[in-house]
Design brief:
about 160 residues; about 30% helix
Length: about 160
């Protein structure tokens, strides 16, 4: 398989999508942050010094999704039509799972946007409670599913 971000002389390039068909494209990414019980309880009870952690993380995830082309060199600036973020409490870890869904009708996919939003949201949680627990672990940032575009649909095995 040839990499699309390299030209015929193996120099980096941004892919030309001008001839691609506009289709509805959706991508869902998720990630987990694992932490101490003390940090988890502080977030759930909204008793952190920096304010409402989960609400701030959702706003950060949305902002990160929108700013992906500013952060990832070969990503196209996109006119997103929707971004949804969901935070699931995982008391058994303890920790949280953040899921970001990005959507548009356009000529290129939104996988990187969903992944970037997820990463930024999780990093925001880390930032807001690092005074309580510097040993938090961010893991499993991954594409769960995508639809639309020439490459077709993808769904991670084992996902509902």
């Amino acid at each position: 398989m040839q990499l699309t971000h390299l030209d015929e002389k193996d120099r980096p390039k941004m892919v030309d999508v001008s001839d691609k068909e506009q289709t509805t494209r959706v991508a869902v990414a998720s990630g987990i942050i694992e932490m101490s019980l003390e940090a988890y309880d502080a977030i759930v009870s909204e008793k952190t010094k920096k304010g409402p952690v989960l609400q701030t993380a959702v706003i950060a995830a949305i902002m990160g999704t929108k700013k992906t082309s500013d952060l990832i060199p070969m990503c196209h600036p996109l006119n997103l039509s929707g971004i949804n973020c969901d935070v699931e409490e995982l008391p058994e870890l303890p920790g949280f799972k953040l899921t970001v869904t990005a959507k548009l009708t356009g000529q290129t996919g939104v996988e990187m946007e969903a992944l970037t939003g997820t990463s930024i949201g999780l990093l925001t949680i880390y930032d807001m409670v690092k005074a309580i627990d510097k040993g938090m672990i961010i893991r499993n940032v991954q594409l769960e599913q995508k639809s639309g575009g020439k490459s077709g649909d993808f769904r991670r095995e084992g996902e509902g």
